[in-house]
Amino acid sequence: MPDARANAVRIDFARTPPDKPAFLGTKSFTDYDLAELVDYIDWTPFFQTWELAGRFPAILDDPKVGEVARSLYDDARKMLERIVAERWFKAQAVIGFWPANADGDDIAVYADEARETQIATFHTLRQQLEKREGRFNAALSDFIAPASSGVADYIGAFVVTAGIGEDLIADRFKNANDDYSSILCKALADRLAEAFAERMHTRVRREFWAYAPDESLSTEDLILEKYRGIRPAPGYPAQPDHTEKKTLFALLDAENSTGVKLTESFAMWPGSSVSGLYFSHPESYYFGVGKIERDQVEEYAARKGWSVQEAERWLAPVLNYIPSQDQSAQDRSLREAMPTQPPSSVVPANDAEARELDAHPPGCTCAMHLAYRKKAVGAG
Predict the structure, then answer these.
(1) Rounded to an integer, what distance in angstroms lies between the CA atom of residue 176 and that of residue 71?
(2) What is the pLDDT of residues 281-290, one digit of tens each?
(3) 175, part of any domain
(4) Residue 118 within a domain
């Protein structure tokens, strides 16, 4: 871990001082206009939902799946028109900005510009696998100015949903034995939620944080993430810990502001919802933490106030080792699966045991055979 931390992303925050958001605190959006989101839809994942591989719009002319893709797209556009015109779903959002500074691999969030009262901490994980020369071991905290720098920095957060009412409409189709329309409805709600996240991030860059007021990007440019800043989400590659949503939701009072709830496993309901953090620095970038070692997990657990076992449970997909309790369980299962070895003080090797082993295949290396051969050598 010390080597990974020594290879952190190096940013000169004094040379590129952070921009202050247009406001601090939170701002809610109720019943957002769905029509405004349509142009921000990324259609490629929509086709992947139906197991049709290819990028939009090229997939519509694909020699293998083009005909099916065109038919599906036509149905989707027709349903989307009804969704917008008849307001099938309600889109709601909340965003917020706060003074913040990095504290090691954590991000301290403050109540106001005095930066004396810390109201929250975002915990981050660092890439730990060895990198080739010139590549950093990044953590999200690297993109926020450290407190020791004396540079005033900020962090943003958001929760958006386009899924209020989604289940009601989908169930209506399902109860009418129209599973196709039910799935199509849910897929479009998901696309609208992602489009809402894209639209809100665009407004953040232009208006609410206003660090890129003159930005003018096409839909394709947005899909290719050619904008300044990032919006990583807890539970995804840059921060694999889903429990960080709890801090994000508390800061935003997201459940009351949007109607989005967190389940016990920290999934969001309605499912067509998106949450994440806003980072504004021009040198911030998306990355995947990848596999992490026991030393970082132990340290992370201490920072979160968890036991190591709890940290291993939540971080299981990114562990680069077998947790001790899992290893013990594996060893125990292995021992239970092995045949019982005869006691060492048994009778000579040419007894009934030898005849019993005649049924084993030639060259057998089971535990009984190994014990038998060991005794046979001793007997000779």
Answers:
(1) 22
(2) 999 999 999 9
(3) yes
(4) yes
| Euclidean distance between CA atoms 15 and 375, whole angstroms | 76
Q: Are 159 and 258 in contact (CB under 8 A)?
A: yes
Is 297 a domain residue?
Answer: no
d(CA 157, CA 107): 13
Compute the distance between CA of residue 272 and CA of residue 258 in angstroms, rounded to an integer: 12
Structure tokens at 292: 């992490």
**The predicted structure's pLDDT at residue 343:** 42
Burial of 24 (0-12, 13-18, 19+ CB in 10 A): middle
- Cα–Cα distance for residue pair 359/173, rounded to 1 Å: 62
Same domain? 135 vs 32: yes
Q: What is the pTM of this model?
A: 0.83
CB 232 within 8 A of CB 140: yes
Q: Which residue has the tokens 């009418």?
A: 176
Q: What is the 3-state secondary structure (H, E, C) of 145-212?
A: CEHHHCCCEEEEEEEEEEEECHHHHHHHHHHCCCHHHHHHHHHHHHHHHHHHHHHHHHHHHHHHCCCC
- Distance, CA of 376 to CA of 372 (rounded, Å): 6
Give Rg (Cα) of the chain.
28
Torsion sign across C-alpha atoms 97, 103, 105, 106: negative
Name the residue with tokens 């082993």: 357
Residues 277 and 347 occupy one common structural domain: no
* Least trusted range by pLDDT, from 126-135, 155-164, 253-262: 126-135
Please, what is the average pLDDT of the chain? Answer: 88
Closest alpha carbon to 211 in 272, 172, 153: 153
H/E segment holding residue 96: strand 90-103
**C-alpha to C-alpha distance for 32 and 9, rounded to whole angstroms:** 37
Residue 296 is which amino acid? Answer: Q
**Residue 350's domain spans which residues?**
338-379
Is 146 among the domain residues?
Answer: yes
User: Which pair of tokens denotes residue 185?
Assistant: 């409805």
